[in-house]
Amino acid sequence: MNTSYSLQKPGLVTAIAVMTLTSGIINLFWGFVASATALGTIIGVICLPITILPTILGIFEIIYAAKLLSAQPQPVQPSPSIAAFQIVTVLMGNVFSMVVGILVLIFYNDLTVKEYFSGLNGQPAPTVPASAPVVIEPVEAPVVMDELPAPPEAEAPKVRKKPGPRKPA
């Protein structure tokens, strides 16, 4: 394990960990409240497995955030699956967790976060794909005319006379 990354943890990784921990705590309470509410009715008892899902997600979020926040960094991969489940919690009415999931997915694509996770796991740092060189070809200068051609003359519109009253023959 490479310990040089323990002191150089990017701020985005800390943000991911704190947001995931907060979302985990909220999902725990959200799941407990939904399960307690569901137990009040017969139909709710049937739907109880659905109401337990935020609680399970909350437990996974807290474990993952604890690994990211620990003083001794543990080899851990980015978890887009947790972020995807956070986004899906909007179906349970949890908008905060959805926003956290979207932000975490965006933060995972940052180059410093990718480098941190690859260094933490002993993998080579990701490289940025080199773009193809841009070749600029010379463009011919436009032909400048000394004199612009005369605009076509517009014909005067022909005015039709209205027929007047007929004279008797």
Average pLDDT figure: 82
Strand content: under 5%
Helix content: 40-55%
Order of helices and strands: HHHHHH
The count of strands amounts to 0
Distance between the termini: 119 Å
What gross morphology would you assign?
elongated
Q: Uncertain runs with pLDDT below 50, 5 residues or more?
A: 1-6
Description:
The chain is mainly alpha-helical and 169 residues long. It has helices at 11-38, 42-46, 48-69, 80-88, 95-108, 111-120. Helix 1 (11-38) runs antiparallel to helix 3 (48-69). The chain has a domain at 10-120. 20% of the residues are buried. It starts with 10 loop residues before the first helix and ends in a 49-residue tail after the last helix. 52% of the residues lie in helices and 0% in strands. Mean pLDDT is 82; it is low at 1-6. The longest helix is centred in the first third of the chain and has 28 residues, at 11-38.
Task: Describe how the helices and strands are arranged.
Layout: H1 11-38, H2 42-46, H3 48-69, H4 80-88, H5 95-108, H6 111-120
Helix pairs in contact: 1-3, 1-5, 4-5
Outline of this structure?
By secondary structure, the protein is mostly helical.
